[in-house]
Amino acid sequence: MILGVSVDTVESHQQWCAKDSLTFKLLADDHKEVVAKYGSLHDYGKMQLANRNTFLIDPHGVIRKVYVNVNPQPHSTQVLAALAEMQKGASE
Asked: Quick one: 35 and 7 in the same domain?
């Protein structure tokens, strides 16, 4: 499952999903609780925003891989390769 989390509002997520035809779920963490617990909250001047980090979490809830400050454009290729490697290791 793919799940995105940001500090933006539900309304902004709906607009973003519609605009970019996103098909994965986005959670609005406008209280910044989840983002802070994952160490992804960053101060940008007077604003607190979420860094673009990715966490690969296995079915048991264990974080298997972390990507910090990712570039969204090529990142999906990296994640798919890591998932394929993880699945390969699980089947051996």
From this structure: yes
Question: Does residue 6 sit in the same domain as residue 43?
Answer: yes
Rounded Cα distance between 74 and 81, Å, is 12
Strand 47-50 versus strand 41-44 pairing type: antiparallel
- Domain identity same for 22 and 45: yes
Length of the chain: 92
What is the rounded distance in angstroms from the CA atom of residue 7 to the CA atom of residue 5?
7
H or E element: which one contains 78? helix 72-91
Q: Are residues 14 and 46 in the same domain?
A: yes
- Segment 33-76, tens digit of pLDDT: 999 999 999 998 898 988 989 999 988 999 999 999 998 888 88
